[in-house]
Amino acid sequence: MNSIYMFSQLILTIFACAYFFMKISQKRSLNNEKNESYKDEAERYNRLSKIHLTKPLTEKSRPKSFDEIVGQKDGVRALLSALSGNNPQHIIIYGPAGVGKTAAARLALEYAKKSKGTPFLPDAPFVEVDSTIVRFDERSIADSLIGSVHDPIYQGAGNLGVLGIPEPKEGAVTKAHGGVLFLDEIGELHPMQMNKLLKVLEDGKVILESSYYNKSNKNIPLYVHEIFKNGLPADFRLIGATTRRPCEIPDALRSRCVEVYFNALSITDIRNIIKNAVKNTNMEFDDGVLEYMSLYAKNGRDAVKMVESAVGAARLDNLYRVSLKEAKWVIKSGRYKRRQDAYKDDSIINISLIK
Ligand SMILES: Nc1ncnc2c1ncn2[C@@H]1O[C@H](COP(=O)(O)OP(=O)(O)OP(=O)(O)O)[C@@H](O)[C@H]1O
Ligand SMILES: [Mg+2]
After folding, report:
1. Distance between the two ends of the chain, CA-based, in angstroms?
2. For residue 218, what is the enclosing H or E element?
3. What is the model's pTM?
4. Which residues have any ligand 1 atom within 6 Å of their CB?
5. What is the pLDDT of residues 175-223, one digit of tens each?
6. Using a CB cutoff of 8 Å and minimum separation of 24, what contacts does 136-142 make?
7. Burial 111-125 (b: 16+ CB within 10 A, else e)
């Protein structure tokens, strides 16, 4: 009887050992498989990150200093005087598409940092957000503009999530703390985001809420308690840029900002932008080509694009010069319309070129 019992114990032990051994080796081979696939992904990512195409002319021609911003003397002056000195203001830049609003906003903070009495520190951040694609969710989960709390229920795993602790996530307004938040196309923000932004401008901080937060919970780290108690810091200056008319922007926002206006660009301005763009191409242009293209470009972006297309057309035909033929082809294929003011101001137009 005893030996039968011992025999069955032995069989059981052997089965148990075999089972655990099988499980361990299964897990090992799964891990190996995972590691292999992570390695493949990492290698693929490395390969991809080594591929770089050349910089488009629109990038190369982006103004690198205020001297390179053409035709916006008053607008640039208004922008700089609002942001410089000891009391920088919030700013909205209005103006048609492609006239240098984004270009100017990107340069403004560096200029203001050098002004007398500025509160911006040398390393003050400039945070740019494209308002047309900023993520928005009515429940404020993952609000990348204002900040959010990742509640454990949405958060799933994660260092704090598994302990049932709500995790504060800072948004762009906190990343811009002490510097400038540039909201490009600010007129496209959702009204709810606009209201939240106003509140942050008022308070200089973001107050977070979560039903998972309990101030007597000892598992919650001290810094999380601090954030729920005092809010995330968000003291910054706003620069918004928009192609919308001032009347389309909420009064509550307008009244908190200095309003700056950028002009539509004249034919002469466009010609200067084309001239600068041409310098970045290593290509010769026949006389009259720049003048001709400037009659058709509505804004700075069009101007640079036209130069790029004309150069492309010349290269396609193995030419080393851009002639009026390429320029005319660009205008025709791009379906550009002649500017209204090109019919009016004869003094800057060489009529013989237009025919
Ligand atoms: N005033 C200007 N002076 C020099 N270059 C300009 C000017 N305006 C536009 N450009 C050229 O056009 C490009 C686009 O300009 P930018 O992005 O600043 O326009 P924007 O006013 O912000 O337009 P949008 O409203 O469409 O965003 C610049 O990188 C530059 O090459
Ligand atoms: Mg812009």
Report:
1. 116
2. none
3. 0.84
4. 58, 61-63, 68-72, 95, 97-103, 241, 243, 273, 300-301, 304
5. 999 999 999 999 999 888 899 999 999 999 999 888 878 888 888 889 9
6. 136/190, 136/192, 136/193, 138/192, 142/169
7. bbbeeeebebeeebe
